[in-house]
Amino acid sequence: MAYYSSEQILKAKSIDLLTYLQENEPHELVHINGNNYTTKTHDSLKISNGKWNWFSQGIGGKTAINYLTEVRGYTFLEAMDIMTKNANIISKTDTVKSKKITAKNLILPIKADNNFKIIQYLKSRGIDSEVINYCIDKGLIYQEKDTNNVVFIGYDNNKNPHYVGLRGITEKRFMKEATGSKKEYSFRLESATKNNTVHIFESSIDLLSYATILKSKNRNWKEENLLSLAGIYQPQKVIGNSKIPKAIEIFLSQNPHIKCIILHLDRDVAGRNSAIALQTVISKKYTVIDSPPTIGKDVNEYLCSTKKLLKQQQDFEDR
Questions:
Q1: Is 46 exposed, middle or buried (0-12, 13-18, 19+ CB in 10 A)?
Q2: Kind and range of the H or E run holding 270
Q3: How many angstroms separate the CA atoms of 202 and 159, rounded?
Q4: What pTM was computed for the model?
Q5: How far apart (Å, rounded) are the C-alpha atoms in residues 53 and 58?
Q6: What are the pLDDT digits (tens) for 21-32?
Q7: Residues whose CB is less than 8 angstroms from the CB of residue 211 and which lie 6 or more positions away in sequence, other chains included
Q8: Nearest CA among 236, 242, 261, 108 for reference residue 178
């Protein structure tokens, strides 16, 4: 039986799952957006901010050792064998820990000469032209030069940009955040009136989709507060210990008139767990309503599905 010193065990336990997979099993990693990942084998297992959570099984942790024993089913000694054989990842740990984390300035992507391609892309996702043009005019979105990515900007109350989300316009899934982005100032549309309700979404595309849905119902979408979380919110294993996402926390502190929060999170396991957690940790001070899409996985799928159904109905009526 292999013997491991306390120093070896501490080193192995200091390695987070993302680092382990990047170095040892990069083929298993699937990038979602920003610092959020999942795995090919388990799409309900999410990795973010140094932690992992396997939502469908209700388990989670921080380290690669946790993952190897609780998800892969290895014994602790077998997991230690795997970790210690990977000398490259062990040696990198001390280097990473010795580096001080420093604040980075936000780097804004270079603007393209026009926004033609992102307009076409957003329209293909069902987003209304008026909503798109409004966001362009307000400097909330633009087209990145060279890549043609959609650039989503988040500002503070002084109109200073603090967040940049990038989304590809091709069939290949691409989402990331620019260097120096702060999620607490994620992409949003704010009402000029004292509307006491805020609508919460996982992504910027879902947010714009909801604005489009409101417009289709002849509602004034500009009078609504719409806030994106810039990705998946991951609650703690013990729901009551979950923290309020910074984006929501900052928005509520800057808008004390808000009384009601409506969640439009995805219908998948991660979205449902997030909704339960947010209702638990926020409901003491606010009315929190869970309102997931009734069709499709997310708000954009709901929008595209309803538009398709309406078109089919119109085509039938025109026959």
A1: buried
A2: helix 269-282
A3: 23
A4: 0.67
A5: 7
A6: 887 777 788 888
A7: 128, 131, 189, 221, 224, 226
A8: 108
